[in-house]
Amino acid sequence: xxxxxxxxxxxxxxxxxxxxxxxxxxxxxxxxxxxxxxxxxxxxxxxxxxxxxxxxxxxxxxxxxxxxxxxxxxx
Length: 75
Hints:
alpha/beta, two-stranded antiparallel sheet, 2 helices, 20% helix
């Protein structure tokens, strides 16, 4: 397998946001943070995309499908 450099690299926070649907009264968790939004947008435009972030246990595969994620250890 060969690894190619991303065409778009987002560096920053990735969060899980609690979003409430006021009509249905349902709360769901969604990916958030500027790095996540930028990376998801770039991926939808067809770019090879990567994210560099610092995070605890986070479901990156589910939240950022098709995006290479590097997690730097937090002090």
